Amino acid sequence: MSIAKLIFLGGLAGAVFCCESPADRVATPESEPPTAGMVWIESPDGGFWMDETEVTTAQFAEFIAATGYRTEADSFGWSGVFSKEEQAWLPVDSANWKYPLGPDAAPALPAQPVTQVSYRDATAYARWAGKQLPTEEEWMQAATQGGKHTAFPWGSEMLPDGEYLGNWWQGPFPYADEVSDGFPGIAEVRQFPPAENGLYDISGNVWEWTATERTATKESVIKGGSFLCSTSYCTGFDLQQKQFTAKDSGLNHLGFRCIAK
Hints:
Elements: H1 3-7, E1 38-41, E2 48-51, H2 57-67, H3 72-76, E3 78-83, E4 88-93, H4 119-128, H5 136-143, E5 207-214, E6 219-223, E7 243-245, E8 254-255, E9 259-260
Parallel strand pairs: 5-8
Antiparallel strand pairs: 1-2, 2-9, 3-4, 5-6, 6-7
C-alpha cells in the first residue's frame, strides 16, 4: 500500500472541473424552485428552497452524463471506505460514486444518497443545477425547524414512542450493529417520515457537506450524522454535533443536499 493511501484524509490535491451556472434566481415562497423536490425554508433573511432529500445517485448520474464531469475520487483512483470487517477506514482502489464500497461490492442504488463525492464535486453539481450548498447556519435553520427543536428534527427525544425516525448505528460502534432501524448500512431516501417542514433524512443516513469552512484548517463543516453514528461514538445525528472534513475527501457515508435562494 502506498504512503499516499495511508495518509488518506490529508492533503489530497487535484483539479476540479467547473461548470457554468444558470442565471441567478431570487427565491420567494411564491417562486418556482430550480427543480422539483424542494421545500421552502423560512429564515430571518427571507428564506430559501432546500432539497427535500440528499442528492441521489440517479440525480448525480444525470449531472455526470450532461457534463462529463470527473469526480476527485475517480481522478485519485481510490477513496475512503469504512470496513465493518476490519473495523476501520481503508483506502479502496476504484471506490467512487457508482461503487461507493469499491468495484467488488454492489453498485449504489439509484435512490440512495450519492456518496464518495468531495466538497468540490458537490459544489460542481450544485452550480450545474442552479443551486448552492447551504451554510452551516442555513442547514441548522432548516434542520431545527426554524429553531423549534435543538436536538432532533422531530423534537427532544431520540426515539419518540420507541420509534426510529432516522438511520444510524444501534449498538457499540464499531463492534455490533443491532440494525434496530431496519438498515444495516445506507438507506434509500424517504425511508423515514419527513420533518414538519418536509425534509427527509436530515438526521442520520449520510453526513452532508455545508459551505461553511473552518478557517484554521480550511476544512468544511459537515452536518447530520450517518448510518455509522451511534450513541457510543460520534452522535452526529444530534443536530448540535458537527465534524470537519478535508474538501477533497470522498467517503461512503458523506453526501450533500442543495439550496436555492
